[in-house]
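Tokens in:
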């Protein structure tokens, strides 16, 4: 029993053949997020450039916007395919770090305003009254049941939570690669080793 537990802990069991599932899950989770983010910036490229320049104060906003669009959109495709995962993880981590620091940092940790969280800051606490006012207006002037049938009223806090989570997932992919069996990287590497 101790040998089994020791081998299990070290990953020296038949589960080794399934170790590609975790990187696959991260890739499939991150790919549509990156694709959507890149696509949104691309179709509104002029607005993205203006935002980078005026709101964020980035130098060379056209170049920075093009780099962000390309990194996110192409990165999403590569993550989906499991191709060059370790390489694309690096610029994607840079994008997530820049987003966390330049866009989300001042808003604290939480992505959504949740006053019950121990991570709630002053901004989140101020949202409680605003949310109640929104609900009151919707109940008075709209069909509240229909308006909230897809989900409750929520106020976005826009904190670093998502950007940091994506960064950590990409960091993991940098070390694991695309994963065993279920990535093009695995099969291309295997083929290259056989050729050598």
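Residues out:
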């Amino acid at each position: 029993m101790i040998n089994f537990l020791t081998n299990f802990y070290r990953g020296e069991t038949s589960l080794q053949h399934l170790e590609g599932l975790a990187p696959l899950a991260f890739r499939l989770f991150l790919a549509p997020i990156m694709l959507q983010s890149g696509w949104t910036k691309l179709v509104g490229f002029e607005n993205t450039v203006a935002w980078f320049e005026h709101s964020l104060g980035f130098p060379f906003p056209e170049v920075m916007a093009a780099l962000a669009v390309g990194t996110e959109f192409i990165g999403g495709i590569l993550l989906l395919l499991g191709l060059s995962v370790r390489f694309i993880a690096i610029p994607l981590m840079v994008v997530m770090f820049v987003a966390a620091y330049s866009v989300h940092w001042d808003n604290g940790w939480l992505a959504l305003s949740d006053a019950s969280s121990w991570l709630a800051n002053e901004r989140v606490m101020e949202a409680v009254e605003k949310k109640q006012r929104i609900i009151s207006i919707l109940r008075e002037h709209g069909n509240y049941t229909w308006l909230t049938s897809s989900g409750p009223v929520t106020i976005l806090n826009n904190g670093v939570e998502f950007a940091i989570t994506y960064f950590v997932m990409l960091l993991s992919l940098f070390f694991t690669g695309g994963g065993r069996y279920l990535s093009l990287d695995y099969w291309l590497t295997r083929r290259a080793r056989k050729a050598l």
